[in-house]
Amino acid sequence: MDALDQLVAQVQALSGSEQDVAHLSSLLKQADELLRTHALRLPFSLSSLHPTKHSLGYLYLLEAQSSGTLTREQSDSFLALASSFLTVCAPEQIRLAPDKFNSVCRRLRDQAMHLHEPMRAILPLQCAIRKLQPSSEYLTAIHADYLQMCLLSKCYKASLSILEDDIFEIDQKKTSLVPRDFLLYCYYGGMIYIGLKKFSKALEFFQHAITAPTTALNAITIAAFGKYVLVSLIQNGQVPPFPKYTPAVVLRNLKSCVQDYLDLANLYASRNIAEVKRCITQHEEVFKNQDNNLGLAKQVIASLYKRNIQRLTQTYLTLSLQDIANTVQLDDEKDAELHILQMIKDGDIFAAINQKDGMVSFQEDPEQYNTCDMTQRLNNEIHHIVCLAKKLTWVDEQVSCDHAYLSKIGRDRPRYDEDFDLVPQKIYTNI
Fold this sequence. Notes:
Blueprint: H1 3-13, H2 18-29, H3 32-37, H4 42-46, H5 55-65, H6 72-88, H7 91-94, H8 98-114, H9 122-132, H10 143-152, H11 160-163, H12 172-175, H13 179-195, H14 199-211, H15 219-236, H16 248-257, H17 259-268, H18 273-282, H19 284-290, H20 294-313, E1 318-320, H21 321-328, H22 333-346, E2 351-354, E3 359-362, H23 372-400, H24 403-412
Antiparallel strand pairs: 1-3, 2-3
Helix pairs in contact: 1-2, 5-6, 5-8, 6-8, 6-9, 9-10, 10-13, 13-14, 13-15, 14-15, 15-17, 15-20, 17-18, 18-20, 21-22
């Protein structure tokens, strides 16, 4: 029995109790060179292991097998093998080797892209995230890869099962997550919400990418800000100022990198359709070829038409389609009618069109907020806010007890008299 066969036998023998698996983990960490040397024999060795019972050993062998350059046939075989493994592996075993587990997930993603079949990676990576997470509030290094596959395959709704989780914890040591993974998670998440037309959620994710702690400006932050400007104009009609907690390096350098987008935002405030169109045409090279944001830029124009029509509802009770077309700078009455019908459908305005007279009557919001559905919605929102408040209280308590935080606060505070006991270590009471 050679060294590889002995290692496989140890995997089979030590995959039972928690103590045995911990011992097996230390043995496998020393076997990397052995596995790389016998890479051609690993498919046969894998066939003798069960992906659920022997998950830790299976993981090491699978990762070593895929380390080299793969042919198209080998890529397809690995994709099938890794997909099956990620779906059925034992969480308590694979969490002992997060680096290896992330490596297998990354190679699964790479091979799916190599075969131009990103959809094949969606379900396995979703399972992999749940296997690696201690809870749904935990961000892993696989999140960004999963969202990337959903984007490439245009399966936006498939991502919501992961994307709608409230993230409160990031353990870089246990999940091998690096800042780039977090930034990509925010960036891809924002793009998915754009695809779903959930612009407020997209803004939330892009803002996380822009305000994430950093010591240097990076390409992901710049790309996120470009989309943040466009989505802000579509959703709110303006770009809000940076939050106070935005890193100083971002505040100093970001605006000079995205001046084309800021020019568009300044012109949008003028409400002049022609000027906004001219700006987009002038910077088409940036919007279209460099950043691939021309589609979003065109939605900015559509949103300005919408806002100009909404302003009319604040002034007039009735108005002719021709007057609306002239005021909003639309082509003709038919174009104005199409815009108004779409806005009525989307709930942006409440109006009725008299096609005989060509007149539009603007109305009040008919929602009385007294239905069962609305009550249930409000209850759900209140419950979510209460849970969030409890979580924030818990986080505040954890930070208050953190040694690094207390040390920094201690350094920042003025010196006190030595005889003054700021935090008494013992409290004496008379009984």
